[in-house]
Design goal:
Blueprint: E1 6-8, E2 10-11, E3 17-19, E4 42-46, E5 52-54, H1 58-66, E6 69-71, H2 74-83
Length: 84
Amino acid sequence: MKKPPTTLLRFGHKGQFVKYPKSWPYRMVRTRRARHDTKCDLLVGICACGAQHFGDEEWIQEMLDDFNMVIETHAEWVARHREN
């Protein structure tokens, strides 16, 4: 039986960010938007690599599938913050 996926939680005052998991291999992209080439640090939001990731990119979806993870939806983030 397959384990349920791990949920990657959103953060930020609007829930606009999702961190790049430390357990994943480094991803370096030459975007020419950052001053120096830097590894990705976010799956959703303006990343250190200089690109803005939205979480629906093909490489992100493949990694989520490979590692059995999902990104928390914005509605789930709102509900979680209303509980507190």
